Amino acid sequence: MRTKYIAVLMVIFFCSQIAAANAAGQRGLLLEECLKLAVTNSFEARVARLDFLISQTDQSAAEAIFDTNLSIDLEYTKDKQQQLSIVSSPGIATNTYSADVSKKLPTGTELNVSFSDTRTESNSIYVSDNPAHTAEIEAELRQSLARNAFGYVDRRNVSVTSLSIQNADLDNKERIESLLAEVETAYWDWAFYKRSLEIYRGILEKAKYLHKTNVKNYDTGLIERGDFLASRANILIREKDVLLAENQYRRAEEKIKLLMSVDTTNRIYPEETLEYTKREIELENCLRKAFQKRRDYLQAKRNVEIKNIVLETRENERWPEIDLVASMAANGISRKFGKAAAKIGSDNNAKYFAGLEFSLPIENNLARSEFEKAAHNKEKAIITLKAVERLIITEIGDGFRDYLTYQTNLSKLGEAAALQQEKLKEEEKRFKYGRSSTKRLIDYQQDCLSAELQLVAGVLDCKKAEVNLNRTLNVILEKYRGIL
Question: Are 153 and 316 in contact (CB under 8 A)?
Fold first, then answer.
């Protein structure tokens, strides 16, 4: 008997050591830690940030219309073809070197400056300088006066790109906030299953204590066999509940790991307990904040602005092209390149040109079609904005009512759980003095278990309702901005 007792003690000791080692190997995580890990490691968050960075490159692409362009040409020509004129040379070698710089200004002004040197070598007796360098510089200006007048369309197109990037930034933040809301909800689910497991284990201990008492009473003939069997069956049912609760707790743990993209081999547990503090909120304030913060509303408003700009540019593109063109050129000719280049500014050999160019497609079907499409798209954007406004009002109203309902229910559930616990304590006293039955005590345990689980579920409902309301208001990202 003594040996058996020592063996039991050794088993208990080793089991306690193993449990302690497992507990020591686990890591507790606060909600804020989980959120930070999720934003840092999550593939969804990383893809969202990359999508935004990709969209930012559109700004440079749109502004590329104002880039400065440099082109350089090197040419060589050898012409030995027969000529009709007796003064023409049957053999001419020409080397041409030219550089051209062009730029379009935000005012719509197109500037072009070119410099060239042409070296000509001929066997004609009628050429005074052989070989000869012809150096020339030319500046040209083109200004739109009607279509794209003073760069109107170009600047508006750049503005559209900038507004689209701002919408992309909102989309990036929306995806990250959606991840944060999912992680926060999963964390409180995790904490709920942890607390549920504790409750089931507590009821299991009560069931074991009841059966232990029934074993003594059955051995002494104080209770019937039916009570003995009922208490034993009660243990088996509670053990089944504990196993299911452990599985749910582990599934919740694996889900939070998945959202955080962390190692799945290490065990973790929620550091925070499932508690709730009542907050006073007003529907009017929620609606006001929603119309200030909701990203879908801000995007819809910006889309209306974008479609309006596009409509204005399409209206401008229906106009004719009227361009003011002006140019000035000067050259110099000499046997040597340096002397030829020097003559550009010294001799009075400049050429000036000014004129107006007018063009317009007769039917102009493309421009009219694009204008009509832009008008319809603007109307569609306005309707979408109105639909988003209605959606916000409905979602805020639903979230607000859910929040208040769960708050009210929680106070009732708390009072009911307290009464059930008190009822169980009283019945346990009655059972101790032989004034109650096993079935009655098991029923009371079940009532207490149900009340505690409903209370914890009520706290979880409040937590989720708060997360959902904050998500509907688009304030979660702002709430945790300091820790991310």
Answer: yes
Q: pTM (2 decimals)?
A: 0.81
HSE toward the beta carbon, residue 159, CA cutoff 13 A: 17
Nearest to 164 by CA among 307, 293, 48: 307
Closest-CA residue to 45 (of 188, 206, 182, 197): 182
Give exposure, 396-408, as e/b (b: 16+ Cβ within 10 Å): beebbebbeebbe
Distance CA 242, CA 196 (A): 9
What amino acid occupies position 40? T
CA distance 389 to 404: 23
Residue 368, CB half-sphere, CA atoms under 13 Å: how many? 6
Confidence category of residue 110, pLDDT binned at 50, 70, 90: very high
Query: pLDDT, tens digit, for every residue of 303-337?
Result: 999 999 999 999 999 999 999 999 998 888 888 88
Is the peptide bond preceding residue 131 cis, with omega within 30 degrees of 0? yes
Residues 6+ apart with CB under 8 A from 319: 146, 147, 149
- The one-letter amino acid code at 468 reads N
Find the angle CA(234)-CA(202)-CA(452) to the nearest 5 degrees.
95
pLDDT score of 126: 58
